[in-house]
Amino acid sequence: MPTLQLILLSFIQGITEFLPISSSGHLIIVPKLIGLEDQGLVMDVAVHLGTLLAVIIYFWRDIYRLLFSVVKIFLNTKSQSKVNSDFLLLTKLIISSLPVIFIGLLLSKYLVINLRTLEIIGWTTLIFGVLLFFADKLSMTILKINHISFSGAIFIGLMQVLALIPGTSRSGITMTAARFLGVERQDAARFSMLLAIPAILGAASLKSYEIYVSGKDFMVIEAGILVSLSFIFALFAITLLMAWLRRANFTPFVIYRIVLGGILIFIAYKAPEFNFWSYLEAY
């Protein structure tokens, strides 16, 4: 794979995985529009591992508290209220993760592959961008992450299933669901990113199994570059988003989605054979 494509693939996955703009959609539409070959399963796993490492590094304190809460429960030490708070949050994250894992395993080969079109991605980018706008503007901002109820966790988990449709955005739909529940913007993003860990791990594991079954060669150097670059880009994106949400809202991401969705819908219906490089050469 050319070096430029490695950098581009890492940039797309790293930046878009945690921003509410759809990484899967961008990974489909960018190669199509500029005429690049499909990166393959090995490269998909590599960029997913890079983004997984980024979210683990950024939220290592949260992850430590959540995992150690299990130990504290069994040892029954220190503040029981604090133990319960972290342990309950971990339980809610697990509950929220189950629907997309089960449905993803059932439908990944039979449904999602038929939805990887510019038309579908254009409409999902537009529709779920508008939905994020209404959730962010109309919902009250009253809840912290630990105030999310079990029913709220189930709601977020069911909404996350929609992310199996390319262009929806896993981070976008889970943040939208959390905002509809009245969760503060930063905590909505925090819950979404912690929820990304089992989601990314599950997707990477499934694709790794497909690689193992197919017997494809593992390109160590290229994969290593992708892991490293996607990690750097993803860590930057997470830091940027969390800093932005301290003082602002989701509107810039909504505007981006509406514009991008409109462009993709136009191309899908009016110029289905559009190629960016051919367009530049014509001028």
- Radius of gyration (Å): 19 Å
Question: Beta-strand percentage?
Answer: under 5%
Uncertain regions spanning at least 5 consecutive residues: none
Helix content: over 70%
Number of domains: 1
The biggest sheet, with number of strands, parallel, antiparallel or mixed sense and barrel status, is: none
Question: Number of helical segments?
Answer: 12
What's the N-to-C terminus distance? 28 Å
Shape: globular
Report the count of strand segments: 0
Helix and strand content put the structural class at mainly alpha
Give the overall average pLDDT. 85
The helix/strand order is: HHHHHHHHHHHH
Summarize the structure.
The chain is mainly alpha-helical. Helix content is 76%, strand content 0%. The protein is globular.
Task: Please name the defining characteristics of this protein.
single chain; 283 residues; mainly alpha; 12 helices; 76% helix; 0% strand; globular
Architecture overview:
- By secondary structure, the protein is mostly helical.
- It has one domain (3-282).
- It has twelve helices and no strands.
- The two termini are 28 Å apart.
Topology, element by element:
Layout lengths: L2 H14 L6 H12 L5 H19 L1 H16 L4 H28 L10 H21 L11 H11 L9 H11 L4 H30 L5 H26 L5 H20 L5 H7 L1
Helix pairs in contact: 1-2, 1-3, 1-10, 3-9, 3-10, 4-5, 5-7, 5-9, 6-8, 6-11, 7-8, 8-9
